[in-house]
Write a sequence for this structure.
């Protein structure tokens, strides 16, 4: 049964992807995507009862799995080399050839044939990743169906030369690769899927084939190849020391002081590039040019989570050493820097991108703090961030197609035009920053776990205040309008509503169930006798902190009910134009000023670009982060 | 369970009364500093009662939503304080109220509200990290974020955390809307932004916000009292002295710009916090 489920989760997306690429009819292709999404979600849910397990699949379609991986590794690298030559990128050529050398050295000289360890391993951490990828990833693919139709219509692409087949091929393939990554226990398998996600993201970012898209996709490719280089060096190094590729075995034995720490630092470096931590953030920002479902897929559920996943996976190994401290500091710094840069942005998608980097930084900081409580925080943050961020990206995508802009200033008064989408977006913002929702629960845990680490807590507390600032500003802007009480509901395709509404309810319901998620999914994984939090009556409690999730949720529901009643009753009250320091005129937003002239009032948001602008901060931040990274890798020598 | 409920209802009812009295005393003392007689002690209550008698007028229905959310979050945070719950969480809940106040003001298109709201955000940005650092400092000393652990501690925290008390003073000044930090709205008539963040709130909704502000006042003063939690007389004296100092500062200083506020408060707050925490780890 579990073999079948794993087969469905990893291999079937590859088959569905091929189907997507050969089906010409849009309708049938949508149906295939829908079917795949449902199958993936159901199988990932069925997997819950099976964990933990491990096994070693010998062959797929009578071909040995190891051989498939070995051959595909080279095929992938050759494909990358092809792109390197096609786009004349020196950096990519260097990185790819470097990887080829190491992979060949490993495969032909170093590797001994004794694969008696399980190549597939699934514990609760992997399971959480698989659930996020399969459910949220599928929802994103659903939303991509109407989005891409509108997108191509908008770009005036004739249906006959539609590139949707290629698009869905990569999107669906991506889900399979991600599942493979989460479930593999063999470093080479992991490396293979890591590279697949790299090439997929390259193809997706470059999908529109505009000049900017190509430029940004190349940048994404070289940065992620750098991560791949770090990873393959780490593999070769570790294998030459302890002679195994079994990740669980490596985690068990490698904590020993007699081995070098450098490969671990390289693995962290690979994770940092994938998670677009500073100074590698530019590929993620560049990914904005792609259609929004791509951004949602890269930023929320999948790609960027790989980075934090590997660091979190290997974090028990570097517990209590210098590297751990470095990861914590780098993460906390990224949390602060990402939040600061997000404050300076009025481009909605960029705000989301920086906020993603910032949140991933917090997760990495938790991995670096490396206590059971911090791990709990990290996993909760991964789950809730995936849900909420996917939701917000989809909202921005939907809004963008409607108002043809992604600038926050243009979303002023969106409530009057797209009431439901605006409300869902505001709900997304609320679940992002407010108790009792899951992300704040995670942040609370992270802060309490970090309290002994002066620099980390300092950066996290500053970053947290900045985070509040850019989200509150956005939510307020969406609601701002001389609102007259009557609005008409907007209409959207059903495949837009399903993902939006289901993610919105998931974000809130899952917060309510956070204690359950914790006891069922996180505690079994901590594999220590020390349990970071006791749960009683829905209250997280330990010796130093207390977070009453369920009581707060109940109070929040009550308060929400009262506030909704307040809106209903306020609708009957007199609605007046805002104060404008002069006699109001019939035209909204204008008043009679001096000399009986009409004066138009206008206000824009503060973006504080002189303090938090990209131009001002990026160089300093990159420099600081670069120095930290060099210190992290160099300090382990 | 029943006693919990009684305590919760008691503090929801009692705290605004306390906050109103504090506000009344504040107004009288301020007037005396300025050689005025000042309003009667109960004036804040008269004001709020009058506001509730007014017609409901809104610019945007979301203002009503936000006003209710503000008062809900403020009262929940104070109830949690009385239940001696987790300090960090109390700060987060309190922040929810502050955010809804801003969102409500942003939902009006008036430039006065908008600029006021952004200044309020900058004020939140200035004081929020400081409050977190103060709470972290308390944790480093008593090894817990829970308030009842602080009450069990056998010496006043101010002896070990003197600088953090000053840091809390900055946050307190901003939170109480006192000069030089009364950028978004102030109690006195020196606002060139009309009434800043409150410009477009009116009638009963303004009344709700006033009450919510009383809750918040009591909450931050409660935080102050934690620095002398060994007996209530010490706590009371500490809070009284602090508040008198706040009024003096309010009267002798002019309102500054947000750039100065952000730079000054972060620089002073972070430096003092770090000094105090490092010192704490050394002794």
């Amino acid at each position: 049964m579990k073999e079948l489920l794993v087969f469905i989760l990893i291999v079937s997306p590859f088959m569905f992807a091929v189907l997507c690429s050969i089906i010409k009819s849009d309708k049938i292709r949508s149906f295939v995507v829908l079917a795949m999404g449902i199958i993936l979600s159901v199988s990932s849910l069925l997997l819950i009862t099976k964990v933990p397990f491990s096994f070693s699949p010998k062959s797929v379609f009578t071909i040995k799995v190891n051989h498939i991986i070995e051959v595909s590794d080279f095929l992938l690298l050759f494909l990358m080399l092809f792109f390197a030559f096609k786009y004349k990128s020196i950096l990519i050529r260097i990185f790819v050839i470097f990887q080829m050398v190491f992979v060949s050295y490993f495969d032909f000289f170093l590797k001994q044939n004794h694969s008696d360890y399980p190549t597939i391993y699934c514990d609760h951490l992997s399971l959480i990743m698989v659930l996020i990828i399969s459910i949220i990833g599928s929802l994103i693919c659903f939303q991509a169906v109407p989005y891409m139709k509108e997108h191509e219509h908008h770009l005036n692409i004739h249906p006959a030369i539609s590139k949707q087949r290629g698009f869905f091929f990569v999107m669906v393939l991506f889900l399979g690769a991600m599942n493979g990554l989460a479930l593999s226990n063999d470093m080479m398998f992991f490396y293979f899927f890591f590279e697949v996600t790299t090439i997929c993201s390259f193809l997706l970012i470059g999908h529109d084939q505009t000049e900017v898209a190509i430029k940004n996709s190349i940048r994404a490719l070289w940065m992620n190849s750098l991560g791949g280089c770090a990873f393959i060096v780490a593999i070769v190094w570790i294998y030459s020391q302890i002679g195994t590729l079994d990740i669980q075995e490596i985690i068990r034995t490698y904590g020993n002081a007699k081995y070098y720490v450098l490969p671990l630092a390289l693995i962290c470096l690979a994770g940092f590039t994938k998670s677009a931590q500073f100074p590698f953030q530019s590929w993620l920002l560049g990914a904005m040019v792609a259609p929004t479902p791509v951004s949602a897929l890269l930023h929320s559920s999948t790609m960027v989570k790989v980075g934090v996943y590997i660091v979190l996976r290997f974090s028990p190994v570097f517990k209590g050493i210098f590297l751990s401290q470095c990861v914590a500091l780098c993460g906390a710094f990224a949390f602060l820097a990402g939040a600061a840069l997000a404050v300076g942005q009025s481009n909605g998608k960029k705000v989301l991108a920086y906020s993603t980097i910032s949140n991933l930084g917090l997760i990495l900081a938790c991995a670096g703090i490396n206590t059971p409580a911090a791990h709990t925080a990290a996993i909760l943050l991964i789950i809730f961030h995936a849900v909420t961020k996917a939701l917000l990206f989809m909202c921005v995508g939907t809004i963008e197609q409607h108002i043809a802009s992604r600038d926050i200033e243009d979303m002023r008064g969106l409530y009057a035009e797209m009431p439901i989408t605006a409300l869902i977006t505001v709900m997304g913002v609320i679940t992002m920053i407010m108790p009792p929702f899951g992300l704040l629960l995670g942040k609370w845990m992270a802060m309490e776990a970090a309290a002994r680490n002066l620099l980390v807590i300092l950066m996290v507390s500053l970053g947290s205040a900045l985070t509040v600032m850019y989200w509150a500003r956005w939510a307020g802007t969406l609601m701002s309008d001389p609102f007259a009480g009557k609005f008409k509901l907007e209409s959207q395709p059903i495949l837009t509503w399903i993902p939006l509404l289901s993610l919105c309810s998931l974000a809130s319901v899952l917060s309510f169930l956070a204690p359950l998620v914790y006891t069922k999914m996180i505690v079994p994984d901590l594999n220590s006798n020390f349990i970071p939090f006791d749960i009683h009556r829905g209250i997280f409690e330990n010796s130093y902190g207390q977070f009453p999730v369920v009581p707060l949720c109940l109070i929040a529901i009550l308060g929400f009910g009262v506030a909704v009643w307040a809106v209903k009753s306020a609708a009957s009250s007199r609605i007046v134009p805002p104060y404008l320091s002069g006699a109001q005129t019939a035209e909204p937003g204008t008043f009679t000023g001096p000399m009986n002239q009409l004066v138009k009032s206008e206000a824009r948001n503060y973006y504080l670009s002189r303090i938090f602008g990209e131009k001002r901060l990026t160089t300093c931040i990159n420099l600081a982060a670069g120095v930290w990274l060099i210190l992290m890798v160099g300090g382990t020598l | 369970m029943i006693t919990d409920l009684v305590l919760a209802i008691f503090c929801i009812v009692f705290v605004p009364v306390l906050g109103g009295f504090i506000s009344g005393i504040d107004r009288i003392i301020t007037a005396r500093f300025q050689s005025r007689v000042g309003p009667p002690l109960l004036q804040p209550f008269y004001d709020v009662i009058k506001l509730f008698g007014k017609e409901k007028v809104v610019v945007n229905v979301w203002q009503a939503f936000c006003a209710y959310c503000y008062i809900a979050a403020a009262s929940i945070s104070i109830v949690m304080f009385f239940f001696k719950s987790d300090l960090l969480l109390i700060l987060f809940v309190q922040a929810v109220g502050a955010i809804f106040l801003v969102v409500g003001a942003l939902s009006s298109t008036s430039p006065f509200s908008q600029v006021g709201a952004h200044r309020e955000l900058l004020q939140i940005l200035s004081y929020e990290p400081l409050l977190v650092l103060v709470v972290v400092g308390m944790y480093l000393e008593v090894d817990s974020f829970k308030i009842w652990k602080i009450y069990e501690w056998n010496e006043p925290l101010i002896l070990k955390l003197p600088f953090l008390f000053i840091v809390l003073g900055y946050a307190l000044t901003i939170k109480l809307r006192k000069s030089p930090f009364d950028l978004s709205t102030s109690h006195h008539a020196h606002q060139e932004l009309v009434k800043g963040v409150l410009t477009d709130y009116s009638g009963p909704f303004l009344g709700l916000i006033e009450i919510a502000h009383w809750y918040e006042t009591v909450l931050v003063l409660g935080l102050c009292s934690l620095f002398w939690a060994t007996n209530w007389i010490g706590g009371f004296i500490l809070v009284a002295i602090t508040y008198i100092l706040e009024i003096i500062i309010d009267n002798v200083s002019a309102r500054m710009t947000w750039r100065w506020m952000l730079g000054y408060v972060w620089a002073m707050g972070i430096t003092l916090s770090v000094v105090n925490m490092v010192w704490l780890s050394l002794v």
Q: What stands out?
A: The first strand of chain A starts at residue 53 and ends at 55. Chain A touches chain B through 67 residues (CB under 8 Å). Residues 329-565 of chain A form one domain.
